[in-house]
Amino acid sequence: MRRVWRETEGKPAVCMACSGPGATNLVTAIADARLDSIPLICITGQVPASMIGTDAFQEVDTYGISIPITKHNYLVRNVNELPQVMSDAFRLAQSGRPGPVWIDVPKDVQTATIELEALPPPAEKSPSPDFSAESIREAAAMINAAKRPVLYLGGGVINAPARVRELAEKAQLPTTMTLMALGMLPKAHPLSLGMLGMHGARSTNFILQEADLLIVLGARFDDRAIGKTEQFCPNAKIIHVDIDRAELGKIKQPHVAIQADVDDVLAQLIPQIETQPREAWHQLVADLQQEFPAAFPRKITHLATMD
């Protein structure tokens, strides 16, 4: 449900649970939100602050559990901290690479009173990182010079569907997507290669092996997408754009790395892209798709063999 809210409303989702088992039952969903870059605010109960560390009824070290699966976590020990913590949590969940923030609220803090003249102003995302014009010029030159480029989309393109499509169509880029980016190009679009990796079409993976340039937008080179790192796109130069600096060079070393919001980058990149038909490349793509079709033959018996 949190994913639907995020993807339809573009806002962080909020979930609440009691202390102990209520909190631990959230762990899998929160870990998933962290990996899928879903902004999520989790508010859980806790035993009174004075009883923390005494193994009180339904006491769990929620703070410790949440450290590796959240962007940030809070244990609120004073009710006066709560308004600012809530505001900061919404800002952190949305800024940079989105993700979950966990707020643990002891029982005595929940029942305490507070006097406020006004609540803190609504939280806004932190500004996206700046990037150099030179990196954009270098990326554009590589795209314009490429003979067999492929566009590789991940969940980081969620806020840039129009510009992603504009780039693909202007540069005539065969486009593959992770699960988180499906739908950025419709399945029937002539440039769509569908998913890559173990859940993708065999032809898509063969096409990637022929690429001389890989333009990676908001994707993290997941092992189920690329398989053996050293054998993935061995002849391709890589342009990697991601809001999370930690993803740049973590798995594959890019020739051009840009830490920034994808939509901001495309706004400057697209005007520098030349329209090219790339007929020879598209013919090779079509040949591979015909040689390795996604569908099984309609007429098949128990004696048939697959080529």
UniProtKB/TrEMBL annotation:
Entry keyword Coiled coil: no
Highest taxon in the source lineage: Bacteria
GO CC, one annotated term: acetolactate synthase complex
UniProt KW Transferase keyword: yes
A Pfam family matched in the record: TPP_enzyme_M
Record keywords, A-Z: Transferase
InterPro entries in UniProt: DHS-like_NAD/FAD-binding_dom (IPR029035), THDP-binding (IPR029061), Thiamin_PyroP_enz_cen_dom (IPR012000), Thiamin_PyroP_enz_TPP-bd_dom (IPR012001), TPP_enz (IPR045229)
SUPFAM superfamilies: DHS-like NAD/FAD-binding domain (SSF52467), Thiamin diphosphate-binding fold (THDP-binding) (SSF52518)
Name the record gives this protein: Acetohydroxy acid synthase I, small subunit
GO molecular function: acetolactate synthase activity; flavin adenine dinucleotide binding; magnesium ion binding; thiamine pyrophosphate binding
EC number from the UniProt entry: 2.2.1.6
Domain Thiamine pyrophosphate enzyme central: 136-269
Signal peptide: none
Family, per entry: Belongs to the TPP enzyme family.
Domain Thiamine pyrophosphate enzyme N-terminal TPP-binding intervals: 7-63
GO terms under biological process: isoleucine biosynthetic process; L-valine biosynthetic process
